[in-house]
Design brief:
elongated; 4 helices; single chain; mainly alpha
Length: 144
């Protein structure tokens, strides 16, 4: 008896997505500020560039997952697809609202303006934890 993987492209994209988010959101984001010579302004500039690129990669990967699942035949709607829908919705919220707000705050800092206290970074980190958790469950469930 041979096992075939029904959604190989979707599975690859899910785990690549997890890798990107893990490496950038949970490592690069805070490690860059520990590098010698990195000022807050320089770190914010790098962060804006990297997170905008990450966002574009996430959009491409999510579209690839959707297309892959449509090509390979989407079976009846099952609860496991909720584990993709949640990260997809988080990505939309981050793209439309959260990243532009964080970007605006970084720009204010770069312009030497007073930046009011905010919990936006905590929201971002919390959403990234939910996103990675759901993607991991979804990726594992795609093997079934």
């Amino acid at each position: 008896m041979t096992n075939t993987i029904k959604f190989p492209i979707a599975i690859a994209c899910v785990f690549i997505w997890i890798g990107f988010v893990g490496a950038i959101s949970f490592m690069e984001a805070w490690l860059k500020f520990r590098a010698p010579g990195i000022t807050l302004s320089l770190g914010l500039g790098i962060g804006r560039l990297v997170f905008n690129a990450l966002n574009k990669v996430e959009i491409v990967l999510s579209i690839a997952i959707i297309v892959s699942m449509l090509i390979y035949g989407l079976p009846e709607l099952r609860w496991k697809y909720l584990f993709f829908l949640i990260p997809f919705l988080i990505l939309i919220v981050q793209s439309i609202w959260l990243l532009p707000m964080l970007d605006a705050r970084a720009e204010m800092h770069l312009q030497n303006m007073e930046v009011p206290a905010s919990n936006l970074h905590f929201y971002y980190v919390g959403l990234e934890c939910v996103k990675i958790s759901c993607l991991a469950v979804f990726g594992i469930k795609l093997f079934n």
